[in-house]
Specification:
Elements lengths: L1 H29 L3 H24 L3 H7 L3 H13 L7 H5 L19 H6 L22
Amino acid sequence: MYAIMQQLFVMIVTATFKFGKRQIQIRRIAHMSPEKREQWREQELGKLHARAVQQANRTRDEDLLKRGLTRADYIRRLEFVMCGDRERIMPQLLLEGMDLRGLDLSTVKRGGIIQEHIERVLGDRYTKLPTGLKAPDAWASM
């Protein structure tokens, strides 16, 4: 019983620390000048792109072909999913203007992707979304 309580205590302290750290980062970003915020955004998008490329490179061409994806589309898809990750700081800033035109996201597990994220990205009538998410009206004219 003591071991369980000790584990629970450690989990609570860890979660509280992570929450506090996240809040500090959010405040720091929110108080940045527009120029600094854009620099931060570009750095974060660069890191995301590198992670997406790294993950995509672990996928064989045959597997991508079976899914009907090009490597470039798979990387764009991974970037979108990584931006919507619940652990990501300020995902709305990262998603703003992201180009998802023509991507099939219908098989992406919803997880951290919410309607608000979809409203911030560029898409068109060929962009397929997961069940439960609605394409913005502007996409119909693109």
